[in-house]
Amino acid sequence: MSNKLNSKLSLPVIISILLHGILIIALGYKFVSDTGENYGSINGNSIDAIMIDPSVMTEQYQRQLQTQVNQQKADQKTQELLDKQIKELAEKAEAEKAAAEKAAAEKAAAEKAAAEKAEAEKAAAEKAAAEKAAAEKAAAEKAAAEKAAAEKAAAEKAAAEKAAAEKAAAEKAAAEKAAAEKAAAEKAAAEKAAVEKAAAEKAAAEKAAAEKAAAEKAAAEKAAAEKAAAEKKAKQKAEQAKKDKALNDLLGGLTSGTPSSGGVASRKGVSDGELDKYKSLVQNAISNKFINPPNVYRGKTCELQIQIAPDGLLLNVTSKGGDADLCREALAATKLAVIPKPASSLYNEVKTMNIEFQPK
To answer: How far is the CA of 135 from the CAs of 129, 130, 145, 147, in angstroms?
Structure first.
């Protein structure tokens, strides 16, 4: 702006200097021309002599002075014109300068406003950028915190799941171990119980066999004694009958009270000894199927009513009284027992018989 104003101010000065220079050259040329005409001229090689009149010189001088005055006036007018032009140019330049300064001020103000606006916009942009950066930073920090929290939660969840899985695995292993130990203990106990049961059954079987043998021996001895007693009783009865017959024959049948039938056999020829012997055999058959290892039923009795076929096949068995547990076991043993075939003469007496069963 300053350089442009200087160039506008120097232009009138340059024009004024050029005009003054032209004016001076013109005046000098005119003065030389006027003096040369009055003093002579050169024609070839001759020079004409000129006589100078003082009055003419005076007039000429006055005319020259007047010309100079006129010239000065013209120069003054020119100068005034130049000054006016210079003044106008200066005023114009001043106006242009003022306008330029005003424009410059307005421009500066506009530039300042633009700069301030730009600065404000820049500050706003920087503030917005700072706020955006802060928001992004906060968002990033929040995202990082949430990610860290999620990773922590995931890690804790994974750790908890791992701990739960390990605990479950440990509990499962412990349960399996306990189950295996329990199974082993139960197996060992079962094997021990089986061994003990087998030993007890063997002992019971041996004892039962021994008791059976003793019972059979006792039954055989008892049967032998009963047989002997029966034979003795029969013999005594026979002798008594013989005596009674002889006495009856002697008295003419007055003391018999009944017709002579030739014998006193009970139950159509079946003696009590034969009946007791058969019942003893049935009881032994039941005892062979009855197991009483710990002698739980020792001293207890059960009355059984047994129905058989002519070949000894069991038709029915019921309990008529006694210990309930013993009767239950006795019924089961009776159903398994092999009852001996009775004699045909004895069947009617034993086809329905009562047995007082007592474990041996």
So the answer is: 9, 8, 14, 17
Return the ∠ at Cα 280 (arms to 277 and 282), rounded to 5°.
115
DSSP string, 246-293: HHHHHHTSSSSSS---S---STTT--HHHHHHHHHHHHHHHHHH---T
* AA letter at 236: Q
Answer yes or no: are the C-beta atoms of 277 and 349 closer than 8 Å.
no
Write down the pLDDT at residue 33: 62
- Strand 302-308 and strand 314-322: the pairing is antiparallel
Query: Which residues lie below 8 Å from residue 31, measured CB to CB, with a gap of 6+?
Result: 64
* Cβ 305 vs Cβ 328: under 8 Å: no
- Residue 282 · residue 339 · CB < 8 Å: yes
Residues of the chain with pLDDT under 70: 1-10, 12, 30-54, 86, 183-185, 188-190, 193-270
Q: Which amino acid is at 282?
A: V
Structure tokens at 360: 């041996």
247 token code pair: 């006495």
CB atoms within 10 A of CB 350: 21
Q: How far is CA 301 from the centre of its chain?
A: 70
pTM of the model: 0.30
Give burial (CB, 10 Å; 0-12/13-18/19+) of 298. Answer: exposed
Q: Which residues lie across from 305 on neighbouring strands?
A: 318, 354
Residues 6+ apart with CB under 8 A from 349: 267, 270, 275
Note the pLDDT tens digit of each residue in 92-138: 878 888 887 888 788 888 888 887 888 888 888 888 888 888 888 98
Is residue 329 a contact partner of residue 258, using CB atoms and an 8 Å limit?
Answer: no
- CB-CB contact of 353 with 282 (8 Å): yes
Q: Are 20 and 83 in contact (CB under 8 A)?
A: no
